[in-house]
């Protein structure tokens, strides 16, 4: 016990050893919230107050859950398998599988990831003969997910206008389709689990009795439905109400755009009758300069709950800020600095390259590759989302549940079996007539007796072959262990053969083999090693599975994905207006404040060194952007930063010089402007600059803040004094310099 509680400060100790009661820990980055939560679980078990079976803990990612389990296992010499620890989605999945019947689901229900969901929506819209241009599938997806996250079924949607009526109708059709095929999407996991507990008193009482402690990390990022689920599970009004221990930081709330709600903190305080919020004020992660920068930045936000954060660490090195002419130069700067860190003895795995948007990783990856620096990208092209893996999973899903139309459509003609659009249409007609799945239609037409009659026509032969294949796979799989099922499927389906002859198939073959490895490690770790459990794992862990065996590689990820993590050194690139803060944030209420919290998260990941950089021009999504440095750089005190500019070549190699921070010093090259060909009289010959004051007939005066070319047209973004930000086509806007 003593070792468990060693090295903690008095506030941390008090939080960890709190008696059976609900508590809210509100504290800044790096103050030990996650450590307190993990240690409390170990303490509760070790002191004999509860068994692992009595605890449910929610973390933000599966990776975090795994790390916590490892840490707790290291602290305790007992089996902690009974402990429910995972993400909201993971825990809801576990509950729904345990009670699938009560939840109205098939035992082998499958989970749709976001792209599967979109495909499903497209099919539903098509069956309703809806024009995708009028109702873009993504918009429908957004509507459905929002409704579910607000706890609403299609029939409960309040219809006040035509648009909502249409959307509600699509939602209903989609709901029916999912139920028929036995599939659930991500928000459905939560909603259904909530409804199950709400409806089924026996189950609710069972869980009230069972979970004596519920602990939640990153509470600031829970959404409304998650909070309602927690309340229901805790049994607020029952005698056996669980002690709910939540930790969070309002300054790190970065999922408001997905419905997360810091208001939950205030409500929690009220609902669970918290008399005193626990605050942790010592930061154990970052050197003082880094912490000072974070504190100064976040002070620009309003409506904060207010916290102090100090550190006993020394000042450390100043933040390095680099002004690069373009994104390649920015990458070159990063690589030089990484090499210097390496020479100091910093392990590559302790260095993170963070960015606001996934698209930024391409140039970085290219440069790292050329510099032969090993790296690992988190959340980029996700393992389980790769084409070959999705094909393989579709076969497995059909084996588990042949009524899964999504899966069937993906692979009925992959590898090619001569089944074309016409063959498929026939099946779809039969399915519609019979009111069943495509598989049922195929079986009806080509299975059993029909199969033996020996069709000779090509598409028919193809379908018959497919029916035979899936039927025999389903029969075989009953007796085989999971890795064996996958191995057989990969050969029998023809996937291996297909990629074997494909020109760039080597990578794909490697990934398919990696799937067998994933299954091997899954059956070692999981309690339930069935095929459906593995498929659920594949959907839930998308993005967190790591392939290959890079022991010591740089860590590349978005700022969102870096939440909760820490590194010796952090590089944050692309600090440009429009990129970070992201341009989309302008259309959101409080969008800028959310971007600033994201910046706060980014800064506070660093323990010893922090590097900030921006590029004056950058290729993104096929366009050259001309950038202004991010306003966030202005919000960090000059005294904490050391600026450098692009590396200058000198006789003895490379040297650098300090420059004074200069904003708005970009000139749009005339060569770029010339490309539009036709310039209005007025603009011809004018040298436009970022930062230039201009005047417009309608909008009045303002300043150019951004420039880009789109579809061959030059556009500038102007911040008008009266009318705010506007994008204008240079050719037509008739701007005049002032
Ligand atoms: P974030 O808000 O970023 O999630 P956090 O509040 O969860 O941060 P932790 O990750 O738990 O903070 O802790 C930050 C670092 O400080 C970790 O390396 C942790 O081990 C260390 N730490 C926490 N408390 C102490 C302590 N009392 N003594 C020494 N190190 C500590
Ligand atoms: Mg944490």
Automatic annotation (TrEMBL):
Protein origin, superkingdom: Bacteria
Q: Which residues take part in binding ATP?
A: 27-34
The record lists the catalysed reaction(s) as: ATP + H2O = ADP + phosphate + H(+); Couples ATP hydrolysis with the unwinding of duplex DNA by translocating in the 3'-5' direction
Q: Which Pfam families match?
A: PcrA_UvrD_tudor, UvrD-helicase, UvrD_C
Q: Where is it found, in Gene Ontology cellular component terms?
A: cytosol; DNA helicase complex
Molecular function terms in GO for this entry?
Answer: 3'-5' DNA helicase activity; ATP binding; ATP hydrolysis activity; DNA binding
SUPFAM superfamilies to which the protein is assigned, alphabetical = P-loop containing nucleoside triphosphate hydrolases
Which PROSITE patterns does the UniProt record give? UVRD_HELICASE_ATP_BIND, UVRD_HELICASE_CTER
Q: Which family does it belong to?
A: Belongs to the helicase family. UvrD subfamily.
What's the protein name?
DNA 3'-5' helicase
Q: Which organism is it from?
A: Nitrosomonas cryotolerans ATCC 49181
Q: Lineage from the top down?
A: Bacteria, Pseudomonadati, Pseudomonadota, Betaproteobacteria, Nitrosomonadales
């Amino acid at each position: 016990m003593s070792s468990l509680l060693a090295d903690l400060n008095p506030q941390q100790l008090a939080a960890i050893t709190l008696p059976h009661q609900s508590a809210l820990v509100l504290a800044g980055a790096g103050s030990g919230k996650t450590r307190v939560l993990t240690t409390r679980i170990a303490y509760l078990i070790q002191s004999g107050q509860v068994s692992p079976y009595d605890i449910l803990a929610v973390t933000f990612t599966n990776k975090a859950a795994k790390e916590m389990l490892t840490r707790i296992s290291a602290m305790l010499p007992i089996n902690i398998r009974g402990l429910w620890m995972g993400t909201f989605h993971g825990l809801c999945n576990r509950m729904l599988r345990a009670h699938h019947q009560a939840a109205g689901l098939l035992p082998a229900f499958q989970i749709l990831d976001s792209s599967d969901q979109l495909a499903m929506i497209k099919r539903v819209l098509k069956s309703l003969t809806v024009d995708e241009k009028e109702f873009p599938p993504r918009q429908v997806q957004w509507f459905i997910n929002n409704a579910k996250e607000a706890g609403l079924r299609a029939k409960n949607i309040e219809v006040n206008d035509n648009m909502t009526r249409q959307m509600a109708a699509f939602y209903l059709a989609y709901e029916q389709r999912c139920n028929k095929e036995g599939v659930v999407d991500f928000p459905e996991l939560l909603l259904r689990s909530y409804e199950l507990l709400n409806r089924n008193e026996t189950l609710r009482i069972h869980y009230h009795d069972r979970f004596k402690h519920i602990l939640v990390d990153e509470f600031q990022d829970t959404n409304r439905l998650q909070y309602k689920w927690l309340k229901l599970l805790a049994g607020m009004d029952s005698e056996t109400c669980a002690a709910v221990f939540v930790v969070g930081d309002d300054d790190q709330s970065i999922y408001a755009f997905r419905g997360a709600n810091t208001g939950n903190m205030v409500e929690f305080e009220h609902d669970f009758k918290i008399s005193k919020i626990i605050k942790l004020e010592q930061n154990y992660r970052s050197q003082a300069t880094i912490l000072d920068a974070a504190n100064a930045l976040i002070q620009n936000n309003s409506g904060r709950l207010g916290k102090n954060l100090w550190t006993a660490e020394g000042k450390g090195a100043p933040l390095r800020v680099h002004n690069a002419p373009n994104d390649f130069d920015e990458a070159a700067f990063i690589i030089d600095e990484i090499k210097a860190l390496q020479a100091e003895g910093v392990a590559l795995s302790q260095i993170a390259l963070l960015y606001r948007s996934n698209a930024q990783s391409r140039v970085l990856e290219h440069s790292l590759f050329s510099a032969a620096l090993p790296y690992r990208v988190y959340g980029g092209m996700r393992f389980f989302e790769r084409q070959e893996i999705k094909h393989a999973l579709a076969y497995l899903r059909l084996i588990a549940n042949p009524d899964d139309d999504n899966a069937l459509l993906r692979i009925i003609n992959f590898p090619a079996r001569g089944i074309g659009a016409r063959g498929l249409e026939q099946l779809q007609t039969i399915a519609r007539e019979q009111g069943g799945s495509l598989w049922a239609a195929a079986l009806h037409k080509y299975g059993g007796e029909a199969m033996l009659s020996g069709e000779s026509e090509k598409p028919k032969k193809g379908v018959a072959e497919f029916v035979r294949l899936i039927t025999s796979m389903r029969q075989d799989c009953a007796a085989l262990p999971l890795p064996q099922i996958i191995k057989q499927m990969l050969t029998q389906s023809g996937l291996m053969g297909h990629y074997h002859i494909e020109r760039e198939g080597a990578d794909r073959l490697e990934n398919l083999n990696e799937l067998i490895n994933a299954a091997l490690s899954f059956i070692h770790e999981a309690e339930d090693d069935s095929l459906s459990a593995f498929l659920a794992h594949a959907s839930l862990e998308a993005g967190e599975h790591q392939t290959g065996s890079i022991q010591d590689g740089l860590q590349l990820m978005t700022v969102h994905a870096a939440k909760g993590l820490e590194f010796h050194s952090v590089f944050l690139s692309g600090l440009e207006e429009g990129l970070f803060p992201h341009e989309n944030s302008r259309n959101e209420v409080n969008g800028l404040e959310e971007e600033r919290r994201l910046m706060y998260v980014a800064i506070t990941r660093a323990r010893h060194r922090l590097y900030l950089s921006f590029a004056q021009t950058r290729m993104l999504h096929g366009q050259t952007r001309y950038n202004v440095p991010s306003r966030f750089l202005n919000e960090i005190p000059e005294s904490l930063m050391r600026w450098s500019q692009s590396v200058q070549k000198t006789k003895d190699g490379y040297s650098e010089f300090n420059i004074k921070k200069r904003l708005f010093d970009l000139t749009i090259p005339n060569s770029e402007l010339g490309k539009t060909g036709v310039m209005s009289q007025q603009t011809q010959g004018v040298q436009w600059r970022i930062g230039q004051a201009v005047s417009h007939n309608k909008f009045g005066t303002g300043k150019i803040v951004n420039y880009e070319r789109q579809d061959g047209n030059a556009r500038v973004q102007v911040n008008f004094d009266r009318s705010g930000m506007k994008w204008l086509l240079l050719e037509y806007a008739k701007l005049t310099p002032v």
